[in-house]
Design the sequence.
């Protein structure tokens, strides 16, 4: 499905939200989506409903709400992200099975030897392939501010940061 896709581009703002979400989700996998057009310019944190600390689950209704939200902003879900609290950046067996059903690349984030790192994967040629992650300049930081503001307006949040917004889910166990 992603045979021609060899890289994932994200802004430092999107990467920072993903890392902060992983830090706040100690003991459980953080899960969310990256939004943008061709590159990830923002991130939306989703609530993990999985029972175990090394799995994630996103409810279908929440996933649909996230996709609808992205459409309203004229952006796309460009990737799904989740953390590995164990510090392993490799796809788990459950990840390998679930990514075959995904229409977007996946980003795995973990703290490895004291530093946060990320790897991106997509399904291609019958197995997951690793993608190169590139940092993009935050060419239009207004997009991130608009996304944050829209989330606050949608949910009635007044001062809570975007990372505290819990959105939709994707089944994965």
Sequence:
């Amino acid at each position: 499905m992603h045979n021609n896709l060899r890289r994932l581009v994200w802004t430092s703002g999107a990467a920072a939200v993903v890392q902060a979400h992983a830090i706040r989700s100690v003991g459980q996998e953080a899960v969310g989506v990256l939004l943008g057009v061709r590159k990830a310019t923002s991130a939306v944190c989703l609530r993990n409903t999985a029972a175990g600390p090394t799995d994630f689950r996103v409810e279908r209704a929440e996933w649909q709400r996230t996709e609808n939200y992205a459409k309203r902003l004229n952006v796309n879900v460009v990737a799904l992200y989740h953390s590995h609290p164990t510090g392993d950046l490799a796809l788990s067996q459950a990840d390998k099975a679930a990514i075959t059903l995904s229409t977007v690349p996946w980003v795995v984030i973990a703290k490895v030897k004291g530093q946060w790192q990320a790897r991106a994967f997509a399904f291609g040629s019958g197995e997951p392939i690793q993608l190169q992650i590139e940092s993009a300049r935050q060419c239009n930081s207004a997009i991130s501010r608009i996304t944050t503001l829209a989330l606050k307006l949608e949910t009635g949040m007044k001062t809570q940061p975007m990372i505290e917004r819990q959105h939709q889910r994707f089944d994965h166990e």
